[in-house]
Amino acid sequence: MSKSASATLDGAARPDGRPAASGPAFGILGAISGAHMINDMMQSLILAMYPVLKGSFALSFGQIGLITLTYQLTASLLQPLVGLFTDRRPQPHSLPLGMAATLTGLLLLALAPSFEVVLLAAACVGLGSSVFHPESSRIARLASGGRHGLAQSLFQVGGNTGTAIGPLLAAAVIVPFGQRSVAWFGLAALLGIALLLRVSRWYAAHPAVANRARKAAAVAPHPPRVVAGAIAVLLVLIFSKYFYVAGLSSFYTFYLIERFGLTVRDAQLHLFAFLFASAVGTVAGGPIGDRIGRKPVIWGSILGVAPFALLLPHADLFWTTVLTVVIGLVLSSAFSAILVYAQELVPGRVGTVSGLFFGFAFGMGGLGAAVLGLLADRTSIAFVYQAIAFLPLLGLVAALLPKTRRTA
What is the pTM of this model? Predict the structure, then answer.
């Protein structure tokens, strides 16, 4: 490894927490963000395939929600355990293996002859995510050069971009060529494995720096009771965000088709617009949090979206498109700020905290999709959109968060 690369990593682990002069390791951040894009793009293909799968297997909305529940619940249950284990024993070479599990799920999805095999494919994708996210989040922090919010935003924007382009690719490839065409996206998974092999080598070469970074940040900024209360508030905010996003994204194509008579292809393009706006909004949350503090970003992101969410069920097609883009931009800035805020509350436990919050986010997204799918079966998609419009109001609980020291 070059001296400059070593200096960059040493700066990322400086004991006083200040950014190193050499700044973030953007090459590693770019690689991990690119792998995140591929990982989440493959996940979003499942989401974008819902109309195709619904027609192929005559699925109900409840079964559609069950697919989301399967892959997100698999990830949510395993991620905290993976994070806890890797805090004690980092596993750099687990990253390519996680991507290989996602590739396996994608191939199963392409060849699935039944609904049960679709669920198995979804579980494999969830397994891949459970391995990928905790260690990747740790590497993003190590490569941050002290600019933790920026690094998490760059890492997150890769995932959000992948989520956004999934429906676009599905509209261009899967809708005209059918379920089996999903297998072609395995080539992207192979690229992801190549990127993660590079990142794993970079991480594995510096175990002493990783250990020193954990030990240097061992002093908690608040008493245990305050930390526990703040974590509980953050989990409420995650519930609000991801339960709402599950309802908005999982059933958005069906909502547009049912209410406005759009074709599947046009509905997926609208879904792309929402998800792309979410990717753009992600870039802002972390750097702004580095400058003004995490709490204002968290407060403004979740509570700030409430007026738009309340208007959405009553809008025509034009304003539905506008409102969902605004919602995506504003709401997506929250997660990077929440994650870094939590990492600062529980220093030295990056993997555990990342696994807990990624896992809880996945779990709430999956549970939301399943519950709201059942609700849609018993009522209507329009009623679901009216019901979830009040969830962002839970952003009020952000007022209970303690102040944290801002990054210099």
Answer: 0.67
